[in-house]
Amino acid sequence: MSGLLKMSSPAFTTMLKREWRLLFLDPWLCSLATWVPLVLAVVVCSIFVKGIARELPIGIIDLDHSQVSRAIIRNLDASPALQVVQSYPDVLEGAAALRAGTIYAFVVMPEDLERNTIRGLAPEITAFVNSQFLLIGKVINSALVQVLSTFNAKVEVKKNLAMGQPVPSAAISSALPIGMQITPLFNVNTNYAQFLVSAILPGLWQILIVALTVLTFAAENRREGLQAWLADGPIRACIAKYIPLITIAWIHGLLFLSGMYIVLGWPMHGSWFVLVLAVFLTSCACVAAGSLFFLVTRDAARGLSLSAGFAAPALAFMGVTFPVSNMTLPAKIWRSLIPSSHYIEIQFSQVNYGAPFMFVIPQFKALVCYWVLFLVAFALVTIIAARGKNTEEVV
Amino acid sequence: MSWWELCKKECAAIFKNPAILLTIFGGIVFYSFLYPLPYAQQIPRELKVVVVNLDNSQISRRLERMVDACPQVQLSGRAHSLAEAQRMFVDDKLAGIMVIPENFYRDLLQNRRPTLSFAGDASYFLVYGTVLKGMTGAAQTLAAQIKVKRMVLSGQAMALASKQYSAIRLNIFSAFNETLGYVNYVIPAIFVLILHHTLLMGAGILGGGQNEELRAGKGDFYWLKVSALKLLLVRSALFVGIYWVLSMYYFGFIFSFYGIPQIANFSELNLFIVPFLLCTSFLGILFGLILPRRELATLLVLLSSMPLVFGSGFVWPVSAIPEGIVKVLQFIPVIPAMNGLIRLNQMGAEFMDVYPLWQQLWLCSALYGALCWFLLRRKKQANLTII
Prior knowledge:
The complex is a heterodimer. Chain A has 2 domains: about 1-50 and about 190-395, no CATH class; about 55-175, D-Maltodextrin-Binding Protein, domain 2 (3-Layer(aba) Sandwich), CATH 3.40.190. In chain A, about 70% of the residues lie in helices and about 10% in strands. Chain A has 19 helices and 5 strands. Chain A has helices at about 1-10, 10-25, 25-35, 35-45, 65-80, 90-100, 115-120, 135-160, 170-175, 190-225, 225-230, 235-265, 270-295, 300-310, 315, 330-335, 340-355, 360-370, 370-395, and strands at about 55-60, 80-85, 105-110, 125-130, 180-185. The longest helix of chain A has about 30 residues, at about 190-225. Chain A is elongated. By secondary structure, chain B is α/β, with parallel strands linked by helices. Chain B folds into 2 domains: about 5-40 and about 180-380, no CATH class; about 45-165, 3-Layer(aba) Sandwich (abc type-2 transporter like fold). Chain B is about 65% helix and about 10% strand. Chain B is built from 15 helices and 5 strands. Chain B has a 4-stranded mixed beta sheet, with helices on both faces. The chains are: A alpha/beta, B alpha/beta.
């Protein structure tokens, strides 16, 4: 009997062909598999196309109206990160503009700024920076510090020279006793685009694969029901569904990677082999997770809602915006359940410093663990298929 | 059908639908605890750095201790050469390197201006900023101490010298998020997005599901049997009502729970929330009318989340985003809502400051409401036989 069944069941290649055809016949699935990822990637990249935040609007309150205060204002305006857009008569108006969000910061030049500077009384300039927008606030903060320390150095060197220090280098050294050289590693011009996009794209990729997987399984449910699909051997049918999905996910991942490190030409120091392998394993992990979300709920809407909970917050847990070492234990546990957090460590270690394969073995092990999900999925489809047969017999 | 009957039918359609319940209530509660989870510690602290001390004098060791003592960084080890430090940096996943050059002490004594070198992992922006702030802060303190000492040696009084080491002092206050906490930064914005997204999904699932029923010819199609205006009013009022309660859960309970500032007064907050929820409900209902299947609204919402977060202006300044993208995004209710609510509730803006955003939300509501009404009427006419 079972032999007869096997003879009548279609060849595996026929099943594969059918899966590919189904994917490309459904307009929604076809879009998800082809142009949607490209459009989303282009949108995200163009949001960050400028790379570095420039000309952030700030306000000025000049209570001194002296040469010194005007010189500082000119220096602030000349800083690439800042742009002095408005001068306010008093602090109250400046504060109102800061609260309204029209400026990101305002700087107060106190009365007698010039007189006290000449007398060496070290007057104090006060700045209020909007730190609600943390990243923007930090950019402004460091620009302000830089402008003022350069200005101070100039004033002090002049003073030291005037007071009789013979050599300019000694005058500089008295003003700034210690020199500091700062090297940003792996991201030489501290380009935010590179920093954020290289994490956003893998996050987006994960969302796309999980959603595509759920919808592909749901499409089967909509056609003739799961039982009909699983009738010729549930595990075979399931594998035939996985192969095109994993292939598409793999291609998407590689396209995203090559977009960043070949087309945009960002530096990449590691091995492409390791990356290609990592992208493959992550594709498998995401497809496996997506299929489980569907098989557990057996409903596209609920499956997608679960996927949203799983994949949408993944970026926050990657440890790129906020360091993993400072996450609490529950956060670390949730993080370890998401494929993209393991993947991003491999990507960063390869791209940034070309770490040897040994270095990323723990991450690879974690990604391989997701293969267990395939076994769970096989068990689920077998149960679903068996249940279908039972009901048929009853009928 | 009377208003009351329609209300009951709509309530049943929402509350007896497990997918909607999971998305709206499950989602809201789940995300309210999941999203703040990675940022529970608010600020990165004690990031590990390695020091290469080629000087080994008393003052360079003091600098080491000063670096170790600052809250941002922690000395996790010493290396004898730059190469060794680089190796440790990669192997132990450290965040920064500090190099104290040879003859640091002697150069300082001879007024020759030695140079300290700092390096940080700039692929992690926040880590980079924090590590450098810690290390350069310690070095600047040391430099100031040296200047004060020199001034005292040249005959200035200590009390004056400790004030005058710098020509002009700069005092920076962080407004609104004084502690620079990450929860206070991310959560107020993300929660508006979650309210928006789950509402779109919920309304989309409801409408898309009814489209499926219509195609299959199953169900009683109560929603086609009443006037389009009546249905729209009841449905949007129900969603606004449900989401008003959920908004209070977020802006009230959860904000207090995480200690996030709530500056806006209750009436102004509500004045702003109402058009936001109405606009989002209409957009969700519109999704439900256009999309043939119920899961597709969820799909659209899921895919749009990343571009919306990063295009909204709270992470990346609007002035740096291409104008075309900014303009298109203005049509999505979450963008004006996020900007308005952060200003009102986090920054203490006057209502007049957010008035343009408030108007924008009402205009979008009118636009989406009119579109819904038009599509619903067309759908009714196309299905006259069923009714």
